[in-house]
Amino acid sequence: MTQATLQETANIPPLNEESGERHWRDFFGFSTDHKVIGIQYLVTSFIFYCIGGVMADLVRTELRTPEVDFVTPEVYNSLFTLHATIMIFLWIVPAGAGFANYLIPLMIGARDMAFPRLNAVAFWMIPPAGILLIASLVLGDAPDAGWTSYPPLSLVTGQVGEEIWIMSVLLLGTSSILGSINFVVTLLKMRVPSMGIHQMPLFCWAMFATSALVLISTPVLAGALILLSFDLLAGTTFFNPTGGGDPVVYQHMFWFYSHPAVYIMILPFFGAISEIIPVHSRKPIFGYKAIAYSSLAISFLGLIVWAHHMFTSGIPGWLRMFFMITTMIIAVPTGIKIFSWLATMWGGKIRLNSAMIFAISFVGTFVIGGISGVMLAAVPFDIHVHDTYFVVAHLHYVLFGGSVLGIFAAIYHWFPKMTGRMINEFWGKVHAILTVVGLNMTFLPMHKLGLMGMNRRIAQYDPKFTSLNEICTYGSYILAISTLPFIINAIWSWLYGPKAGNNPWNALTLEWMTTSPPAIENFDKLPVLTTGPYDYGLSKAKEGVPLDDPNPVLSAGPNSVLRANPDPAVAAKSEDSK
Questions:
Q1: How far is CA 127 from the centre of its chain?
Q2: What is the tens place of the pLDDT at every residue in 378-397?
Q3: CA spacing 20 to 30 A to 261: which of 19, 278, 296, 349?
Q4: Number of folded domains in the chain?
């Protein structure tokens, strides 16, 4: 008997197959069901991804030629400002929250989040924030000081557009804080009684580390934006050098959030990849505790690296040295994860389905982004390429090659659980191939552009950069086209795909131990843990433990967790037999 069968057997009788069915109208209202909210997060963030992607293609179309011949410089500035803001605050961050909302209660055996109404409020702050940003572009008064909004530039551009940007980001930051409070309390207080912290799935560890980062760093960004708003509207001079203010203080406050934001965007998908690779390699995860604690290490170190964005701002040499060292050190826990994933795949029975292809692509492209990140951590090199396209290439290999590929890997992996249907694998692989080709064609040449000296955030450039920019632009079109088979495939499969069953991947974590899609309260009784979350390739029969043993103990490996059956009747029967 396989471990997956053992885990499923321990949790029968299963729920009614139709118990998870919902009407489509449920997803357009104020629901407190964490699964509905999770899907609302994912669909909403994907819509903003498409909008941000259109803006990116407009920017790349302008950059196909060295002349300003497609959009005006003012519109160009607004497009790249909104593109970056949307992709960070309205796509990647909410997508991570969406998976966390859907999966965390299921993974820990809870019936919902700790604060369901707060959970709904956190989501419903996102659509108005996004609508504000889009409306500013349509109305012709969009922010155009870049997604960093550095003063004094942001103090002399359009005041209305800048205030809209500040309001939107404050709403989105508040949403993140509310969601993170919910995740932390849920993980600490609502695990099934038999689940210790070292039996939590690694996605839960990753979300705990992410939530801690959000709670510590986001209020600092909020403070910076409120003070910037005072400078804009009330005439104060917190960051205005003409009145004695210091714009470098804004940079410190902004990056104290916005570099940890990189880890806020990548840690959830580190967790997702740690779930996907063992399942589709059919091997126990290599180094469970190392991966778990490396997430916490990244969360801590992420708070003390922010000033590597400011090496050219005039900060003292000793401060540069400190932040160079801490930035290089943060590569260590990240490397632990990479080597653990590779060791997990080594010798495994790998299923090259869509989820696994995206996961493997995630590992490869993220390593490229990580290597260029270590290069940028070195002060001399950073000064040379600061504000060039080398930085743009690094950023996109980390956030697109990392976070976005992680999002798609997670969607393909958990699509059967969320919808009860299997997604079409052929078109999933087409989507993966087009995405990886488009990604590398768009962003790989940017490394050379940066080394050649092409500045970022400009619409007009030296003609010697034309050929590489043409390659980048055509690659961005391939990325745009790659989204089409995914959209069609997801919608068609959700409506007409073959039924998935409860556990099509034969996985071991608790979200697969209920129906697909899950019922309103997830489980009809307290779920039972009979294996570790990654004990693939092991069987209860090998250990000689009978299936009806009310208190099974299995020594299957470092991640094994066989606990007493929490059902009171079974426990009482066990005590009577003694």
A1: 18
A2: 999 999 999 999 999 999 99
A3: 278
A4: 1
